[in-house]
Write the structure tokens for this entry.
Amino acid sequence: MANIDSRLGSSSASDAFYRKIFDLYKGASGASSATPGGFSNDDPLGCTGFIDPNDSSGLGTSLPCARHFIANRGRPSQDSLTSGRVDWNLASDDRAFLRLQYDRGSGAIVTDPISPVFDGNLNQPWWQAQLLETHTFGATGANQFLVAGSYFAPIYQVKNSAQAVGAFPATLNFQRGTFNSLGGADAFLGYGSGRYNTQYQISEDLVKIQGKHKLGFGVNFSRIYWSELPGRSGTIGQLNANTLLAFYEGGVDSASPDNDFTSLSQSFTAQTNLPISFLNFSAYGEDEWRVRPNLTLTLALRAEHYANPVCRSRCFARLAGPFESLRHDPDEPYKKAILVNQEKAFQSIDSVQWSPRFSFAWQPFGISRNTVIRGGVGIFYDPVPGRVASSFSGNPPLVDSYLLFGNNLAPDEDESLFKDAKASNDAFLGGFSTGQTLADIQAADPNFTPPSIVVPEGRTHSPQYQRWSLEWEQGLGTDTSVHIAYYGHHGIHELTQNTNANAFGFGSLPAGQCTHPPVAPCADPRFSGVFEINTNAVSNYHGVVVSLRRRFNGWTQGLLDANYTYGHALDENSGAGVFTFNRASLTSPQDPNNLRGSYGSADQDVRHSFNANYVWDLPLKAALRGHGWDSLVNGWQVSGTIFARTGFPYTVFDFEESGKLLQNNYFGLLYAVPVGPLGSGSSCGAGAAIPRVSHPCQPPQTTDGSTPNPNARFLQSGCASGFNTGNLGASGICDGSLVRFAQGRNHFRGPSYFNTDFAVVKNTKLPGWEHATLGIGFQFFNFFNHPNFGFPDAGLSSPGFGQISYVQQAPTSILGSEFGGDVSPRMIQLKVQLEF
């Protein structure tokens, strides 16, 4: 506080803002047990290389910059499910059923470690209805008609918006240092996020047997209506202190503004709910031809039409053409470059997707033998996720998003990043409506920061997947079968998001911004971030599955299913450039000019996987040689599941250097540059888990917080000078020799996973109630209470680099999925079930 007060005064807005920050940290649950320094032994003062530039306080040399503690907060989630079904026979050849289901839940999706006022919840009422009618035409034909609809409203929001914003009017993150983020998820959930989703579907399928042919035809029509909440949470603003020195100086160090700065990401909008709709139509024809008694061939053709998403209030805005086709001339008015009031999301899309498919089933030794060989090949399509279409409703001038640097971070300071953002927004809105150029707006506001924009490519394709398979199934008697299968696919036109389309001044990027007249290559000075939505990525998968099914009959009854999979999934961008698979996912390529350089193991790649499930009726009566009361010894059943797999892959990033490049419109993440060739990316586990870190997943970068570790695998943070290029030496100095080595995407592996669930149930027939059975038992989730560790900290500049600070969640649990509860420990559930 002394440095803030010496610069800005003890009665300044910065003094009050910083006191609010420290009061929130001091008030965190567990703060009373905090100890001086950082989490890592390599950073005993918690300063990550920071030293008081005035050398007056000893901060960073003898005094710690932080105090640290480890604590866990838990919050309950709840969910209820009600469903019902009515079946009726309309006639001898007509049957129908109606099914209704209502799901209501509240999930603790964000549990903030600093203050419960920043906790985020998910509320999701979900109605579903389905009416299905089946009509048969004698023994050779059938028709099925389906009408279905649903209403789903997942709304993510902090518990009390006014209270959260009042406690802290922004979110504050540290690119480097010991401190937790402050403000929780306010910048995303402060004023709510989500949509009200209504959809319906009508389909009809007809099957007719004609001689050796079974012909199938069908059509499907579906409509989806969104009422999406506007992006008001972004108006709260997100601060990112690139270094501790920037935070120490109130937001920026005037002696080194290119390195020690704070950035503010903030948006402005007056939008209300957005009415966006989708339409899908598909039709297919299929011929299953029984060529011989032991050979069946199936030919199919499917046609799909995904309409261009529509906003009934014309809430889309986009550039006048693909970004690379623009002149990038700063003298062209914004009003000419941006098209507003657009009804359709994409500039152009595919009209019809044709999907031919072929498969066969062959019993080479005749139908009396238990050998079956199957195979097939076909083309499949996915629609472009609706979230991509809705992103165009967040473009200027409908939603104006800015990224600012180089000023005080306290919102109410006389000069601050927040006031710069408001001034830029006022200048842009006024200039856009009157047809002004960038120079005109800068004349009115010399500190004007251009807005960012999301743009589609000229023609957006639906992702296509070419799939093929070959399977062999062998029956071993009547109770055992073995199945061996190979599966492969090749994906094209896959979605990717290039967040760095307008980046410059690093590595192979353009050297600078365009002037008038523009001379390519150069970045467009009218925009900061340009986020390009492309469909040009590829993927591949090859996998072998071995399965065993065994039924137990005789003195006991049971079933065992076991599967082992060896596979390798590779792609250039997982999650369609939008969705993150795990905490280590990357949604955009490192180098915007080299998408192929991101080709590597997919985020969801698992080399070895084993899954099994079993059910066993305990033969207690037989074991006791027929003794015992039936009501006590009969009806006991045990069941369970087993999950085991190798770890998911991850990449090591240079967050500090990535943060510096924000000023150059680079919004991706740089891969850390190796100091030499890397060996195999071995996995790690319990030895890397805090607080006892005996064997971290990556060697520490430094020995004392600043001196480079001679055993480090990567250049020091901030020493990269290009993609896969940089200099040896200490962080911030980087005066060593030049090295050029590529880490490659997803080179390393996180910890493996093992979990088993177990259940024991006693079923008892109720006397006097025909066909009624009462089951009482216990279900054990994570039966052995085995900890499954998460990914290590993959940021070079982090004090916990290479260390694991959390555990993975189980795929099955009492709490379901996506409700934010911690289901990693063993959980026991009492189960009571009445069947009648």
Notes: Residues 417-433 form the longest helix (17 residues). The mean pLDDT is 91. Residues 200 and 521 are 48 Å apart (CA to CA). The longest strand covers residues 530-552.
